[in-house]
Amino acid sequence: MQTTHIWNKLDLRWRKVVLALFFVFSVSGISFGQGMFGMLSGAGSDDQFISYGFFLAGHTSYYQIKYTDDFLNSGGSVAPNVARISPDYKPGFALGFIGMMKFHDQVHLMLQPKIGFYEHSVDVTYFSSTDDNSMNPDNVIPPTNIERYTSEQTLVEFPLLIRYRSQRFNNTRMYFLGGGSYRFRTKGQDEANLDDLVVDGQDVTLELGMGFEIYFKYFKFAPEIRFSHGLMDIYKPENTNPLFADAIGSVKPKTITILLNFQ
Prior knowledge:
Elements: H1 6-10, H2 14-36, E1 50-67, H3 69-73, E2 82-88, E3 90-104, E4 107-111, E5 114-127, E6 144-165, E7 172-185, H4 189-192, E8 202-215, E9 220-230, E10 248-262
Antiparallel strand pairs: 1-3, 1-10, 2-5, 3-4, 3-5, 4-6, 5-6, 6-7, 7-8, 8-9, 9-10
């Protein structure tokens, strides 16, 4: 099951790349918006009680994995061939709509339904097996080999967020947001059970983020960075590959997302 991935060959650090691009894009966008419209732009939906929009997003996600106490304290009797399990960041994308309710000029309730396309990957490092102690007379740590297990899933998500934004400065505003999201997987559990690492199809996540609103002549553009942390243990050990199933105690997804919002 071991495969070759171009991302591993390039050894890209996705979090650093995404954050750097977000910073450069935001700074250049603010300068462009202010430079193009020296006067205050009247575009956007600031005066509307309910407003709408859409967004495109790219993300990088991974599984936060915790070992079982039995695996850590058994002295090698639980999942004896497993040396370690390492989750890997994988890219994906999402798109959806924005529904905004205005409570105050600086406070909004936002519903942001979306469809996200995710890929999750874990590297399981196994000890190479030896038949008896005669093959390892000096008690040297045996060599290891790594198997990569990857799964793909499409999620429908419903983030409900409170957004607080600063007062408008020229044609820009900064904002912070937080809330929760319910999401579910589109494929059935029977199909998901065919994966090596099996997880549940439903989850609730905590969402935190920040961004900038940039006013253009006919619309508002808001680049945003958001952090998502799964609150539920979605691991299903009974259907996971038995070679490492007993080593894993819990699985919770984490995601870093860059959103491009248009209103």
